[in-house]
Amino acid sequence: MDVLEQRLAEWRTHVGRSPAVAGVDVEELESHLRDQVEDLRRVGLDDDEAFLVAVRRLGAVDGLSAEYAREHGDRLWKQLVLAPPAEDRRSRGRLRQALLLAVGAGLAVQVPRLLGAGVERPADLGLLVLLVLPFLVVLVGTRAGAALGPRGWLVAAVPFVVGAVAVLAPPWAEGSSTEVLVVLHLPVLLWAAVGHAHAGGRWRSHEARMDVVRFTGEWVVYYALVALGGGVVVGLTVLLLQPAGEPVLEQVLLWLVPSGAAGAVVVAAWLVEAKQQVVENMAPVLTAVFTPLVALVLAASAVVYATTGLAADFDRDLLLGFDLLLLVVLGLVLYALSAQEPTRRPGVMDRVQLVAVVSALVLDALVLASLLGRLGELGPTPNRVAALGLNAVLLVDLVVAAVLAVRFLAGRAGADRPARWQTAYLPVLVVWAAVVVVVLPPVFAFR
C-alpha cells in the first residue's frame, strides 16, 4: 500500500468512528476526497500535499460528524443498541463473551441463596460484591489493548483474596460497626483491581489512569440507564404476575432482581467499550449540566453551615451524607477533567469547578472540626476514625486541587496539572480503603 492509500485508509477509519456517519456516507466522502486529490495532483502537488489540501477543503472530521449528526440524529440512538456494520466478527465475539460473563455474574450472585445463606448481615452483601466483580475484571482485562499478562492477573486477584479474608474470616460482633465499614470500603478496593485490569497493569501511566476514570464515569452512566430500564421490567413483571400469587411472584423476583443487577455490571462495561463514542458525546453535556448545580448547592451549604453555627450539630447520619457529597464532587470534578483537552484555555466551567472545589473544601474543614471535637469529647470509635481518615484524605486532595485550579486560571499552570494531580492521588484513596478493610476491624476487636 503506497503512502496516499495508507493516509486515505487512516482518514476512512477516523471518519467511520463517528456514530453519525454510516458506511455509505464514508464511501461518498472518500469519493469526493479522491476526486479532490486527483485534481490537485494534476496541477503539480505531490501525494502528501494533495491529500492535506483535499482534506482541508472537504472539512474537519468533527465538523463532518456534526453535520451528519444534525441530518441523521436517529443514527446516534441506533448506535446504542445496534453494532455498526464495520464491527464484524471481533465485536460479535466480545458481545458473546460479555453475555456469558453477565450470565455467570447473575448465577454467581444466586449461589449463597441456593446454599441456604440469606443476606442478613452486612458481610453477606460484601460476599455478593466479591462474587460479581471478578466477571467484570475478566471482561476489561481481556479487551483489546489491555494485554494483561499472567503477573497482571495475579495482581488483580490480590484485592479479591484480601477482601474475601476480610469479609468471611473475622468473628464479627453483633451490630458490628467495623463490619459495615468493611462492606462500604470493599468496593473501592475491588474497583482498584478492575482499574488495574483495564489499564493492562500500567498503573504508573497518567493516561492509563485517566482512561480508567473515563471508563468508571461512563460505566456509571450506562449502569444507571440499564438500572432504569431494569426498574421498568421489574414493575411490569409485578403487574403481570400478581394474579399468579405471591409465592410465584416472590420466586421470580428473587431471580430477576439480584441476577439482573449483577449481570448489568458486566453489560454496562461492555456498552462502554462498544458504544464509547456515544457516551463521549454525552459526558461533556452531563458535566456541564451537573457541575454548576452541584457547585450552587455546595456554595449555599457552605455559607449556611459556616455562618449559622449548624456545623457544631453534625450527627453521624449528616456526616455520612456530607462524606458522600464530597465524594460525588470529587468524582464529578475528575470526570469533567477527563473530558477536557489538556491544551485548552481557562473558561467559565473552570471557574465553576473552582467554586465547587472551594465550597467542598469549606464543608470538609467544618466536618473535620466537628469530628475532632467528637473524638476529644467521646473518644475514638470505628466510625469516627474511618470518617476522620476519609475527610483528611479528601482535605489534602481538595486543597491541592483548589491551588492548581487557581494557578491554571491565573495562567501560571497548564490545563493538565489538575488532571495529573487527581490521577496521581487515586492510589491514596485506595490505600485508605484498604486500611479500613484490613486494619480497622482487628484494632477495634471486630466491634
Automatic annotation (TrEMBL):
The keyword Transmembrane helix applies. Keywords: Membrane, Transmembrane, Transmembrane helix. The chain crosses the membrane at residues 98-119, 125-146, 153-173, 179-199, 220-241, 253-272, 284-306, 318-339, 351-373, 385-410, 422-444. This is DUF4153 domain-containing protein. It comes from Pseudokineococcus lusitanus.
